[in-house]
Backbone:
């Protein structure tokens, strides 16, 4: 089954509230694109989207605030407030586009870089910083926003997503599940097994691969010799490559994949083709392994700039909108900064908490011993 | 009738049936657990009665089985996973150690992982490679997991019930060579705590501590020793994480001597943990060092050697004698 | 890249020493077949083979002797001489066809069922029985016949084969490597990782999947919803499905894949579509999960019978050939039976041997202790 | 110049360089080991000098890395595999335990598996989850593997040479928080045996046994104890499988007291094995039970808690005092 034939089944909405695409000019036919790097709306035979000016401004706002939050986090790491930060710079469209395609009852399994998706889910950005500051391993309740904790071991979460989706299907719900992973992760056996399980059980899950072309220092050629979206076909479900810097295309393609899942047609692999503009994390030094030219070429494809051009050209946003948004960004940054600085260290005893739900004799014993040991210093006045 | 005499395997089967009946969220997952009923028939008849939606034949991929069970648990299910043989749990080891064991803590308690992983373990059935191992220490070392092993049909029934009811991940080691041993099961009893050891046999001279398949050997050793006038106490540990050190301590304070017996290799095995901790707790009571009887530091041997490899009656008695000789 | 385009590059040999195919009549276009179940030679646009009568008789002999050996092993298990046996009944063509495509310098990584391939490699059949008797975990030197030990943990050997093939390429040799695995194994993460590694490093390896349609009690639908040969494409190398009960097609397709590997064009996945005629092993009871009708249908496709029909129809073998072969079979069976019965139990101390190549203090200590312990019984006259 | 003062990380780098120079069959494999030189720069510059064919960036799949390394070893190569962090070794655990460890024995010695798996391990660097673990016991329990860990730059250099030369699979645990500690390395020395412990510091009252990152802490504890008039002997074990029990025994026969220190959780950790065996060997010499200082039975905590979690000077001294109090 090809992607195209599947997508074709999707009812097409013909009314365009916002300006229709000017002319098709997709340089790579495999790549779904609705907004060119130059900010021009183009059409795709199988995917379209129909958004109000307000919705478009909303996507723009999401991307800008996410980027600003991300930059602030990077700065906080430089200032020593965080131990580490994994920036999403350049991947805002992939994350906001896919994140905004989700319904509240859908469930998200992120990697460690999905700050934009977290934003869409309503997770307070400061909560994301706890693990990078070293005060916890995950600072939010996954069930509140249906947004699972960040998973660090590469690829593991794709199986959790698959199992969760199997559960959704068992429940007879029409929710969908989305699993994020990277181009590097595509090599992990767990990801392959999640393809097998989801296909065999026809689980309502969307595999969203952000191919940012790097796994730390390794280019995608170290993981595959064909485009990653093609991986899905051999497992019996569609794969589709979308311009990961085009928020409209990411939204449209993810929405279509989610609808497919809801209809009981099983998994889809979406490969969002994008670029990691920054270092892998703040610990990384990309000058050792990649050239500045690549980065420069991708700067021209910036996801935020192209939507801004479009908004401005079409008159969907006025100067005030951008000014207000700048202020809003500053407020967000300030709030995050202050919240992180105020974030208390956990209590020493916290390491004994939640090791088990039903308790464990040894943990109790060790907690008591450690408390007594700590207390002995207090007594000595140390 | 509440009290039945059942083979251990059948007790497990009945226990799974009860769990499926009682809680609609309980699922059985694994390779060949459906029509075949598992290679040991522990899930016999369950798919027929509860359907493919609750008793699920999975693709042949252990990481996938445990990983998807985690996802199902996050969705509110209580998966009971079957690993076909001890030696085949390792493809799932990453999911067990890095995800299943740690996710509750990672989420600061906000989510629970009530997943049971059933593993038929141990030797003595004349099998080929990878079908006779005892990897329990590799799980007990990992915080976040609970590790248990029944030695009787009654414990098999009840401990599996309790493992399924537990909100923590439980690695449930089934003594495969005792599957066919019969014992009385009272399905209306009120079971004791899951992680409490039991004095199977009272004695005064030496304590034998064991779990799973080796309990029977120890009981036989106690009988043989009794004929020679030695009074041996046998403690069935039942749980390898947590370990009920209090019960062992009480016994050792009485006997002054302890021999720990397991099939797993001695080196870095559970006997080491027990020896270390009991020595600390009972330093002034011990008349002899804690001795360990177990597997050698070698891969589980081919079947024709397993009788020599496995700790049998004679090796246990030898250790009892050595302990008494101090 | 499709299989067809690749195969087309192979220089075609036009001279047919033996009868050419009569008429193309392949029921399933995806399935490469050169000899129908009825024993008729058919042509395939991309694969052909050109064998002398002697070679054809050789393949027939291999299959017959393998089957006889296999039957004898099953009988020996029933008689208590073996603890277990994994029969290859029905898979003789897949194994002999692929096994005879190999050169001596090629290297084979089998599962636990490749008795026919072992036969082709010159491994003494009695050596295969040691592990099933329980006297060892593998009774032959893998380096003598370039035939690795049987691997029981499903799928693991595909990675060993990949690594070995990477080594072959590093050495600049033009040998190839073949990894056998089953339909069930296709779900293991290790198999997927071996696809990734072999593709990325362009390793000279052929993945030979015997899809016998069952993984113990689970039909192939529990592993995949599309034919398995398609799996390869998403990893960037060709996959091809061959009639696994057609020894000629298996030979031709494997040979072509091996040549591709030798030419430095990387891996190929061959799916040999066949049927497990017997139980999974002697411990298994297939009546619990599958119907006799299926088996009956596959009996009509028997790999040995179809070649016999062809040999007889074409006059490539006379009655004497079959009589002699029957006798040869009896001799083989007798030799195996006697050898197994004479196979000594290993020495008690053998379990301490070869745990390490360079020794290990603890093993030495335990060996000494155990020897002393054993000796204590001897002293006591026990 | 044969004697240089090098950071431990650089000593490893030099050792790998030497191995690549000396033996054309040596290969380096792992994630980011090429241009980046590894996240800790242990392989810095090696790909540049020895080429992509010998220093191999691999796909992001640890099972694949170890599994293909096994295949390369079967072809006659000597792969030195880098696992990026301790917590990421588990996807490879199956290949390590069921294949790498057992294949030599499976083949009755006919094939050898000279594979080294380098794992930066332990905490103290303020990292996120899975980057600070000490899983050595999970390997040492497995027959067929050797497990070592250097504590100094010199040992790092020489033990890695020896591990690569060994025909057995060696799990080489690198104390990542000591990577930047400098020490003298004599590249022309004749090293002692790989699996022999070393008395780092002589003493008469208590023995401290440790390895890898905790040796430094123990040496500091010995110095602090000396100020209080206690004479502490420190044994650097260097090898966790095999363990050089003779050296520990000799020390304990002198001091009568033993404290084992490691970062890994105490429960089922290497301290248990050492306590059990030394108690057996030195039953009449021990004035106090063997005490253990190590990690708690909890997942490695977030960075802001690691100072409390990790056994530091005070906890070691506390154990020394408790031992002496018997
Ligand atoms: C199993 C495992 N191995 C190694 C790592 C170390 N590591 C963290 S991120 C990363 C690269 C991931 O690349 P990709 O999947 O492309 O995601 P990206 O970071 O580009 O978003 C690696 C190797 C890990 N976290 N888990
Ligand atoms: C990792 C692992 N899990 C489970 C098993 C038990 N097991 C042995 S054979 C088998 C089925 C294999 O099916 P397939 O790959 O199709 O090969 P076939 O037996 O049909 O030749 C299973 C589940 C195993 N050997 N290894
Ligand atoms: Mg990436
Ligand atoms: Mg099969």
Residues:
């Amino acid at each position: 089954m090809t992607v195209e034939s599947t997508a074709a089944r999707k009812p097409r909405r013909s009314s365009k509230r916002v300006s229709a695409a000017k002319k098709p000019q997709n340089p790579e036919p495999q790549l779904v694109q609705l907004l060119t790097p130059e900010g021009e709306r183009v059409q795709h035979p199988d995917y379209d989207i129909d958004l109000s000016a307000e919705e478009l401004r909303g996507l723009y706002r999401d991307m800008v605030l996410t980027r600003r939050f991300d930059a602030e986090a990077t700065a906080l790491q430089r200032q020593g407030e965080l131990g580490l930060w994994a920036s999403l710079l350049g991947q805002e469209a992939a994350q906001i586009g896919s994140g905004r395609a989700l319904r509240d009852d859908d469930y998200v399994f992120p990697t460690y870089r999905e700050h934009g998706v977290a934003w869409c889910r309503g997770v307070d950005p400061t909560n994301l910083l706890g693990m990078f500051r070293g005060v916890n391993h995950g600072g939010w309740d996954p069930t509140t926003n249906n947004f699972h904790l960040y998973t660090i071991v590469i690829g593991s979460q794709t199986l959790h997503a698959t199992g969760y989706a199997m559960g959704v299907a068992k429940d007879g719900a029409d929710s969908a599940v989305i699993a994020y992973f990277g181009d590097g992760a595509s090599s992990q056996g767990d990801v392959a097994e999640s393809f097998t399980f989801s296909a065999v059980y026809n689980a309502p899950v969307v595999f969203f691969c952000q191919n940012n072309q790097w796994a730390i220092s390794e280019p995608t050629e170290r993981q595959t010799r064909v485009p990653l979206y093609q991986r899905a076909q051999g497992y019996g479900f569609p794969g589709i490559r979308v311009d990961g810097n085009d928020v409209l295309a990411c939204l449209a393609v993810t929405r279509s994949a989610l609808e497919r899942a809801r209809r009981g047609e099983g998994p889809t692999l979406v490969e969002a083709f994008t670029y990691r503009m920054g270092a892998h994390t703040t610990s990384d030094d990309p000058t050792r392994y990649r050239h500045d030219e690549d980065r420069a070429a991708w700067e021209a494809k910036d996801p935020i700039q192209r939507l801004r051009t479009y908004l401005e050209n079409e008159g969907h946003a006025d100067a005030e909108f951008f000014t207000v948004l700048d202020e809003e960004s500053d407020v967000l940054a300030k709030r995050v900064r202050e919240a992180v600085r105020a974030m208390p260290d956990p209590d020493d005893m916290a390491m004994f908490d939640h090791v088990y739900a039903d308790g464990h004799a040894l943990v109790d014993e060790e907690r008591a011993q450690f408390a007594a040991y700590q207390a002995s210093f207090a007594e000595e006045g140390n | 009738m509440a009290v039945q005499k059942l083979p251990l395997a059948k007790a497990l089967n009945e226990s799974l049936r009860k769990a499926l009946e009682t809680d609609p969220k309980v699922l059985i997952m694994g390779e060949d657990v459906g029509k075949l009923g598992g290679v040991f028939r522990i899930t016999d008849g369950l798919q027929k009665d509860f359907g493919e939606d609750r008793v699920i034949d999975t693709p042949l991929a252990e990481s996938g089985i445990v990983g998807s069970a985690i996802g199902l648990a996050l969705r509110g299910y209580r998966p009971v996973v079957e690993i076909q043989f001890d030696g085949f749990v390792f493809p799932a080891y990453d999911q067990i150690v890095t995800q299943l064991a740690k996710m509750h803590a990672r989420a600061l308690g906000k989510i629970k992982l009530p997943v049971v992983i059933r593993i038929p373990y141990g030797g003595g059935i004349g099998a080929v490679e990878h079908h006779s191992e005892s990897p329990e220490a590799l799980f007990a070392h990992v915080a976040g997991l609970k590790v248990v092993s029944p030695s009787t049909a009654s414990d098999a029934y009840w401990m599996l019930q309790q493992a399924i009811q537990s909100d923590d991940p439980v690695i449930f080691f089934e003594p495969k060579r005792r599957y066919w041993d019969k014992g009385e099961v009272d399905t209306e009893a009120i079971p004791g705590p899951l992680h409490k050891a039991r004095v199977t046999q009272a004695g005064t001279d030496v304590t034998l501590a064991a779990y799973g398949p080796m309990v029977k050997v120890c009981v036989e050793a106690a009988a043989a020793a009794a004929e020679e006038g030695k009074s041996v106490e046998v403690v069935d540990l039942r749980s390898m994480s947590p370990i009920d050190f209090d019960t062992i301590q009480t016994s050792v304070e009485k006997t002054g001597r302890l021999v720990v017996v397991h099939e797993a290799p001695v080196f870095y095995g559970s006997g080491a943990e027990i020896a270390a901790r009991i020595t600390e707790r009972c330093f002034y009571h011990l008349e002899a060092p804690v001795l360990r009887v177990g597997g050698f530091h070698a891969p589980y041997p081919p079947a024709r050697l397993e009788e020599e490899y496995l700790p049998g009656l004679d090796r246990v008695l030898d250790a009892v004698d050595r302990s008494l000789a101090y």
User: Anything to note?
Assistant: Residues C 182-184, 212, 214-215 surround magnesium ion (ligand 4) (CB under 6 Å). Chain D touches chain C through 47 residues (CB under 8 Å). Residues 8-22 of chain D form the longest helix (15 residues).
